[in-house]
Amino acid sequence: MAPPPTSAPKPTPPSYTHDYIVIGGGSGGSSAARRASSWYHSKTVLIENGPSGGCCVNVGCVPKRITFNAALIREMLNHGKNYGYDIPDGISMDFKHFKSLRDKAVERNSKAYDRNWEREGIEVVRGTARFTGREKEVEVVMEDGSGRRLFRARHILIATGGYPVMPSDVLAAKHGITSDGFFDIEVLPRTIAVVGAGYIAVEMAGILNALGVVVHMFIRGKTFLRKFDPMVQDTLTKRYEDIGVIIHKDFAGFEKVERLDTPEMEEGGVSAKHESRGTPPSPSKRLRLKAKNGETFDVDEILWAIGRVPEVKDLDLVSIGVKTTKTGHIAVDEFQNTSVNGIYAIGDVTGQYELTPVAIAAGRKLGNRLFGPPELKSDKLEYANIPTVVFSHPPVGTIGLTEPEAEEKYGKEKLKVYHTKFPAMFYDVFSAEDKVKHPTEFKIICAGPEEKVVGLHILGDGVDEMLQGLGVAMKMGATKKDFDSCVAIHPTSAEEIVTMK
Amino acid sequence: MAPIPKECDYLVIGGGSGGLASGRRASGMYGKKVIAIESKRLGGTCVNVGCVPKKVTWNAAAIAESIHDSKAYGFSVEHTAPFNWSYFKQKRDAYVKRLNGIYEKNLQNDKVEYIHGRASIKSKHEVEVTLDNGDKQLIKATNILIAVGGHPTKPEDKIEGASLGTDSDGFFDIETQPKKVAIIGAGYIAVEFAGMFHALGTETHLFIRHETFLRTFDPMVQEKVVAEYERQGIIIHKNSSQSKVVDLGDGVKQIHYKDSKGEGTLDIDSIIWAIGRSPETEGLGLEKIGIKTDEKGHIIVDKYQNTNVDNVFALGDVVNQGFELTPVAIAAGRRLSDRLFGGKKDAHLEYENIPSVVFAHPEVGSIGLTEPAARKKYGDSIKVYQASFTAMYYAMMEQEDKGPTAYKIVCEGPNERVVGLHILGIGSAEMLQGFGVAIKMGATKADFDKCVAIHPTSAEELVTMK
Question: Which EC class heads this enzyme's classification (chain A) (predicted)?
Answer without folding.
Answer: oxidoreductase
